[in-house]
Amino acid sequence: MGVTIYLFNAYHFELLYARTAIGELLAYTFLPLVLLGCLKIWNNSKANGWWWIALGMASIANSHLLSLLMVTILLGGAEVYRWYQRKVDKAELLGFLKAGAVSLIAASYSLGNIIYLSLNNQLTLPFKNLITIDLTQVNQSILTNKFVEMAGSWNLGLPVSILFGYLMIQWLRQAQNVKIKEWTAWLKAAVISVVVTLNWWPLEKLATTPLGTIQFLGRLLCLTALFLMVAVVVYCNQQPFKKRIYWMIMILTGALALSSLFEFNQSMTPVPAGDGHQIVTPSTYLSTIEAGSYLPEYHPKTLQGKDALISNDKVKISAIKTIGNQGEYLVVSSKPKRVVDLPFAKYKGISYQFQLNGKVVHSQSNTHLKVKLSKKTNRLIVSSKAPQFDYWLILISIVAYVMMVVGLWQSRDSKNRLNGDIVI
């Protein structure tokens, strides 16, 4: 049941098919590993809980920085809450510290490069915003069993929303029952994570603050799905149903979710260029930049503070071939002997080599490729070389991952399993 809810919810499909946000999708995939480690530690199964947290956090760090920030804040808040309840002991604190240290080592390649480029360049940071969820749009999406890319309508989908509502009803019906506290705690967390995303609050005033880094409050639905998954699992453990009922619910949930996916696929239409959705290919690369149909995130800035990835309408560029860290392009200019700005970002701290018509040339700009073309039709080869420390960082990251897998294998124990009482 838990896996069905986590996989077959509309927000998951939104990431996978509507937005194709691969980084967020990978972070969504690894999030349960962090939760598993926390539950093991919180339930006194300290043998390998911290290994799971380290593996999950490292994988999230290597996938999506914003998800890493969200999960880190969530874990910090959970530990503060447990400390307030006097539930934190030295073993638990040590476990989280070890998990943090190992995860940082395993993510050193990704984090190290981000820090290195940030220190050596003035980068264009992601835009800030706080786009909330509109219940009117959500209700329409849920009732029609459809999902779209519009951030204001993100939701968990019809089948999962029905299960959510069922648990809410059971919570109200059994409010006086002490036993339900074990699953209602997770349900309350799910409810809170939904309520804070709604447009009931004047959050747009905070869009320019660091909180605006989240951009879409609907991203918190990944936490909603996680909390709801645990709530359903604990509820089913306490009030077991017949297996055929479980199967009926899972099959119905999967069928409705796949039906919405089929509808989404059937309703897809070509997206017009210039609205931020044009597919970038070697043939559309230049036109995409000229139309401004991209988000210049983490591109180097010019001395004037503008995005360095600019185009030049005097030239046409087409890719011949790209292999690894090298690309070969055909650059056609209306006139020869002209200095042009080409849309190739150039980061300080990275070694580049540019060959124009077989001769090595140097860029006249520190932030992008600016060269003098020798004739109308030119063959350009662009290559880069990673810093030496990159090889050490990738080696360290690989060794750390191997260490985590070995640690999990060695600490496996049939007795080291969670019981039905999953509490914070």
Descriptive report:
This protein is an alpha+beta fold. It folds into two domains: 2-268 and 394-410, no CATH class; 285-385, Immunoglobulin-like, CATH 2.60.40. It contains 14 helices and nine strands. It has helices at residues 2-7, 10-18, 22-42, 49-61, 65-84, 90-106, 108-120, 135-143, 158-173, 181-195, 221-238, 243-267, 285-291, 388-410, and strands at residues 130-131, 215-216, 315-323, 326-333, 338-345, 351-356, 359-361, 368-373, 377-385. A hairpin with a 2-residue loop joins strand 3 (315-323) and strand 4. Helix 2 runs parallel beside helix 12, helix 3 (22-42) runs antiparallel to helix 4 (49-61) and helix 7 (108-120) packs antiparallel against helix 14 (388-410).
List keywords for this structure.
alpha+beta, 424 residues, Immunoglobulin-like
Overall pLDDT, averaged? 84
Basic shape: globular
Distance between the termini: 21 Å
Spatial order of the strands forming the largest sheet: 3-4-9-6-7
- Which bin fits the share of residues in helices? 40-55%
